Structures are given as C-alpha cells and as structure tokens.
C-alpha cells in the first residue's frame, strides 16, 4: 500500500501501459483520475475499480483540457504522463509540417504541459512525483518512425531539466523507457480494425521476443511495476533518471556458439 492517501493522474490510462499502471496505483491505495480520448475504455476501467479510479475525457494535445484534467483531480501527488500513439509515419523527407506538429503535441508538449500544470499544485502540497513515458526509440534508430523517436528523445531531456527545476519544490521527475510491450499501439498505428488486433499483436510479440535476451514480450504490468517504483517513496533519492524496461533489447540478443 505504497500510495495510501495519494492522488494520482494517469494520461492514456484507458488502455495498455497506462491502464495497468492506474490499476496498480489503485491496488496500492491511490485515488486515480484517468484522462484519455477513449471514453469506452475509460468507462470500462472505472467499472472494474471499486471506485478508486475515475475517468475524465481528455485530449492531451489540447492544453485547456489537460489543465482541466489536472485541476479535476482535486489535489495531485503523482502524475504519469503516458498518453501516446505512433504519430507521423513518414520519413523525414516526406513528413508534413502538420503531422510533425501533431506528433510533437501528442508525445512531447503534453508531457511538458502536464508537468507545468501539476508541479505548482504538488509543490503547494509539499512535493510529489512524476513519471514520463519515453521509449527505447529515444535511444536507438530503427525501432519507430522519425517524429515519434525524436519526440521521445525530447522526453528524456525534458525529464532531466524538469527534475532539476522541481527538486527544490520536493517534486521528483523520472522517465521509463519501455521496449516492445504487447498493447494495441502497433495495431492502431497500422490502422488494423479491432477484430484483427489479437492475431497481429501475437505476431508482433513473437518478433519482439526474438529481439531481446529475455525471450518474451513485455507486458503492460512489467512497465506498471517500474513506474510505480519510480512514483513511490522507494525511489525517494531518484530523480532525473530514465529506467529502461526492455527485456535487455538495447543490450542485444546473444547467440550461443
Ligand atoms: P495503447 O494504445 O494501449 O495506449 C495508449 C493510450 O493513449 C490509449 O488509451 C489512447 O486512447 C491514449 N491516447 C492517444 N492519444 C491521446 C490523446 N491525444 N489524448 C489522450 N489520450 C490519448 O498503447 P501503450 O503501448 O500503452 O502506449 C502508452 C505509452 O507507452 C505511449 O506513450 C507509447 O508511446 C509508449 N510506449 C509503448 C511501447 C510499446 O511497445 N507498447 C514502447 C515504448 C513506449
């Protein structure tokens, strides 16, 4: 019960990593407000949460909606800036200015503004903790589209600078870098309809398992555990860091000789 009495906001909590983290936070005592554009997913989550998880529709690319989400938490101690999607698919020689801006607004500006709106409230309450979802794509090329990877690399730097700015207010800021995690993000990005997602997700998980020393796909719960460590007092001396949770993908798979 590391989060007893704490108030948490999770963006992108209607699905995948955000959903697993909202459930884990609630299980460990927090009151959680999930913000997401997926209203059906958000309502389904609140229905299974014993009243500890509330949902509010929020498009994180809309600054006013994000500010209203943070305000609606009625006090905030923990923030998980996590909402995301694949963003612009085109390589740099083809991407449009509009798609580039949309991707940055979704993956980078939302993290900056979420922190911007939450930090003063946390400071007034004596402190707090923020975790931002980056990606292994922030470190290496080839995993994801250019705009996505660039935005996620920005999240790493933003995490460090936010940590430095906010430490004197008792607010810690860290990032988590998931590897391949089985969620709907890939099949959504490819535009696959819902009925085809399970099969496609299993195929993607199989490929992912081959690319890393721990030969299984990551689960949303693997990431939730790491996020909850960073949000908890177990990490009270940890700020400005990035925690890789990638089954060793960035180390590389070893082949026996
Ligand atoms: P997911 O699709 O299961 O969940 C993402 C959630 O974000 C969805 O509920 C979606 O509705 C929500 N969302 C999308 N756009 C939004 C917006 N404008 N406003 C509010 N909510 C919005 O995918 P996931 O894998 O759980 O992704 C969560 C985060 O993890 C993302 O930031 C993603 O980039 C990151 N990530 C995922 C992986 C992976 O392998 N799944 C790897 C690295 C990083």
UniProtKB/TrEMBL annotation:
InterPro entries: NAD(P)-bd_dom_sf (IPR036291), SDR_DHRS6-like (IPR051122), SDR_fam (IPR002347). The keyword Protein transport does not apply. Coiled coil: none annotated. One of its GO terms (molecular function) is oxidoreductase activity. Keywords: Oxidoreductase. The keyword Oxidoreductase applies. CDD domains: SDR_c. It comes from the Bacteria. Belongs to the short-chain dehydrogenases/reductases (SDR) family. NCBIfam families: PRK07231.1 (NF005559). This is 2,5-dichloro-2,5-cyclohexadiene-1,4-diol dehydrogenase.
